[in-house]
Amino acid sequence: MSALTEQIKKQPKSFFVGACLALVGAVGIVDYLTGYTIFFSAFYLLAVAIAAWFVGGTFGLAISVLSVAVWLGGDAAAGAYYTNLFVPAWNGAIALVVYFVVVWALTSLRKLHHELEERVRQRTIALTGEIKERERLEKEILEISEREQRRIGNDLHD
């Protein structure tokens, strides 16, 4: 594993919570400044993914809801006008469903990753034990062989 990966793993969850909130805020500001005609949904997805992977599924869902709220709020503040409230509600619901699917996929992948790491750890321990046992048996065979050679040598000498 690379040094960067190890460094990231050592960060406390609170670091990632703050990073996700800051990222949603920063994307929200840029989203507001660029107006409601440019779609920034994919950039909110980065915060959702970080939240789901490093903090957990529940926080990932919370960041999803916050991202959609910031996105819709920023569009409204930027002057987006809808003749029917169904349009922003529909757009928000679609984005929320996509974010929820990403959270589900990442939390499932993370769980599988942890299970695989645990299996590797257990198998490494078992393999280490087998290697030690094999070394012990090889040493025992070598001692028996040397002892037999000495016995045969003594028998021949006598």
Task: Give keywords.
single chain, 158 residues, mainly alpha, 5 helices, 0% strand, rod-shaped
How many strands appear in the DSSP assignment? 0
Total number of helices: 5
Order of helices and strands: HHHHH
Radius of gyration: 30 Å
Distance between the termini: 62 Å
Task: State the gist of this model.
The protein is an all-alpha fold and 158 residues long. The chain contains five helices and no strands.
Give an overview of the whole structure:
With 158 residues, the protein is mainly alpha-helical. The chain is rod-shaped. The protein has 5 helices and no strands. The mean pLDDT is 92. The longest helix is centred in the C-terminal third of the chain and has 72 residues, at 86-157. Helices cover 87% and strands 0% of the residues. Helix 2 packs antiparallel against helix 3 (41-55), helix 2 packs parallel to helix 4 and helix 3 runs parallel beside helix 5 (86-157).
